[in-house]
Design a protein that fits this description.
mainly alpha, 3 helices, single chain
């Protein structure tokens, strides 16, 4: 399917490249696990965890869109 024939929401989803996100989230979660193992405990409550997940998602989305914009011809 050509990008020009996609609906606007499909274009945004295509631009966000959701299949590439595990490449970023897996190392981030691994880093959190290493930090928790080093500290010997989890010091983050549910509220902070949700905030961290949303912040990571927002940052990753902005980064992917910025890289995509820079790669345009």
């Amino acid at each position: 399917m050509r990008i020009e024939s996609m609906r606007p929401t499909a274009r945004w989803w295509y631009a966000l490249e959701p299949t590439s996100w595990p490449k970023v989230f897996v190392p981030a979660l691994f880093g959190q696990a290493v930090g928790a193992a080093t500290a010997g405990r989890l010091s983050m409550g549910a509220s902070e965890l949700h905030r961290a997940i949303w912040w990571g998602t927002f940052t990753l989305s902005a980064l992917v869109l910025a890289v995509g914009l820079g790669g345009r011809k």
